[in-house]
Amino acid sequence: MAEISIIPKRSLRGLPNLYDKTKTEVRERKRNILYLIFNYLVENRLLTAAEALQNEAQLSDQYQACENIDLDIMLQEYQSYYYTKFQKYPKIVRRVDESETGTPNRSKKKPSAKQRAPEGKEKYASPSESEDFQFEIIPLSDNPKVTEKVPYDCANRSNEWQEAAERISKEFVPNNLGVTWKDCVGLDTAIEKLKEATVYPMLYPELFKNLPTWKGVLLYGPPGTGKTLLAKALASEGSTTFVNVTSGTFVSKWRGESERMLGVLFDLARQSTPTTIFIDELDALASGRSQCQHEASRRFKSELLTQIDGITSGESGVLLLASTNAPWDLDPALLRRFEKRILVELPDEGRRQEIFRHHLGRSHCLDDEDFRKVAVKTEGFSGSDLRTLCKEVAMRVVREEISQMNKRGYRSGAPRKVNYKDVEGALETMKPCTTPYECEKYREWRDKYGSW
Ligand SMILES: Nc1ncnc2c1ncn2[C@@H]1O[C@H](COP(=O)(O)OP(=O)(O)OP(=O)(O)O)[C@@H](O)[C@H]1O
Questions:
Q1: Cα-to-centroid distance, 80 and ligand 1 (Å)
Q2: Which domain does 314 fall in, by range?
C-alpha cells in the first residue's frame, strides 16, 4: 500500500510557492475532471445530468475537453497500463455489499406492499418464508416511474408450481443491459420489426387500436450476426418486461417438470405485460426431426405450441422472440406461429466497415481508406468475427508493451495507437466462421419460408 505523508501546513511556511503551486495543480486537476465528465455525459446524451453538473460545478462554456482526450480513452489506457503491469485487467466497479449499504437482502424477505425492488436485486421472496409471497417483475424502461412491482399471488398454487416459478423468475432480466439500438449496426430491418411489436404500440396506442401487434418474431441466420445483441437492445430500450430463456432453463430429470416450467413461464409473462419472452437457440428446444424424437420432447413441444397459441390469440401483451442458427430444423407447426421470420445476414462491405469502426474504438490512427480496405478484406466475417478482430488488433499493442516491459523492466508513456499494420497482422490469423455455402443455405430457406 502506498504511504501518504501529510505535511503540516505550518512546516511549508518557508515554501509558499510550492504549497500554492500544489494547490493550483489540484484545483486544475479537479476542474479538468469535471470538464471530462461533462463531455462524457453530453456524448452519451445524458443531457439532464450534464446540465445539472454544469450548473452545480459552474462550468463555463469557454472551456471544453481537448480533442481525443476523454474518459473513455483514459480508462482504456489505464486498463492497458494495468494489464501491462499486472497481466490482468483492473476491476473498475464492484457490486456494493449489503453490509455496506445497510439494505437487507430482499431475496430472502417477504417484500412489503410499499417496497420497490432495487434494480438488479432478486425478484421474489422464498415461498418457505412466506405464505403469500410475491413476485417482483420489473418492466424495463428508461423511465423509472414505469418501474412497478407486479404482485404475484401464490396462495392457490401448489408447491411444485412455486418451485418452478422460483426457478423461472431468475430468467427475468430486471436491468438495463446497456445495449442500445445504435449498437446493432446495420440490423435495421430486424430493429424496425421489433419496434413495431413493442415500442410503437406504446408510443402511438391510437394507431394500434384495431391493429394486432406482432406476437411472434423469429431471428435466424449465421452465428455471430447479432441476433442475441438485438434481443439485448430490446431488453434495454423497449419498455417491456424481458425474460430470457434457453433450453437449459427447462432441463429437469423429473417427468412433466419441463412442461410445468414452460406453463409457469407463460403465466408469469402474462402477469407482467407487456412482456417479451426471448428464447435463444430455439432449435435446441423444438427441433422438428421426428426420428430423433423422444416422448418427453414431443410432450414439451406440444405444450410449447399450446402456450404460444395462448399468447398469439387475442391481445395478450406478450411477444415471443426467438433466435436460431438452424431454422430448417424447426418443427413446421412451430414455425407457422412466428409471424415474422427475419434473416439476420452476414454484413455487407459497408456494414463491415461500420461494425469494425464501432468496435475499434478511438485509439487508432486509421484513415477512411484503411477502413475501406479492412471492409474489403473481411468478406464473410460476421459482426462477432469483426469484434474478435478488433480485440486481436488491440492485443497486438498490448503484447508489444509487455515485451518492452520485460526487456526494459519499466514502461514508457502511454501505449501507442493501433495502426493499419496491426490490422493486417491480425487478419492473417483469422478466418470467418461461416462459409459462402452456408450463407446460400440461409438465403434459400428465406426464399422458401421467410417473412419480413
Ligand atoms: N451487427 C452488429 N453490430 C455490432 N456488433 C455486432 C453485430 N453483430 C454481432 N456483433 C458483436 O458480436 C457479438 C456476438 O453477437 P451475438 O451473440 O448477438 O450473435 P448471434 O447472432 O446471437 O450468434 P449465435 O447465433 O451464435 O447465438 C455481439 O455481442 C456484438 O459485440
A1: 25
A2: 159-345
Q: Answer yes or no: is the C-beta of 184 below 6 A from any ligand 1 atom.
A: yes
From 387, 392, 442, give the residue whose CB has the most ligand 1 atoms within 8 Å, as the site to mutate.
Answer: 387
Binding site membership of 186 for ligand 1 (Cβ less than 6 Å)? yes
Which tens digits make up the pLDDT trace of 221-261? Answer: 999 999 999 988 888 887 778 888 877 777 665 667 778 88
Tell me the three cell numbers of residue 5: 505523508
**Of 312, 345, 378, the domain-final residue:** 345
Ligand 1 pocket test: which of 220, 228, 229, 378 has the largest number of ligand atoms within 8 Å of its C-beta? 229
Alpha carbons 219 and 43: distance in angstroms, whole number: 31
C-alpha cell at 370: 484503411
If phi > 0 it is left, if psi is from -120 to 50 it is alpha, else beta; for residue 87 that is: left
Alpha carbon of 227 to ligand 1 centroid (Å): 6
Q: What is the ipTM of this complex?
A: 0.97
Asked whether residue 199 is assigned to any structural domain, the reply reads yes
For residue 178, the CA-to-ligand 1 centroid distance in Å is 15
> Which residue out of 182, 232, 384 has the highest number of ligand 1 atoms within 8 Å of its CB and is therefore the one to mutate?
384
pLDDT, tens only, 403-424: 877 777 766 677 788 899 999 9
186 and 319 part of one domain: yes
- Bridge partners of residue 287, in order along the sequence: 330
Same domain, 177 and 305: yes
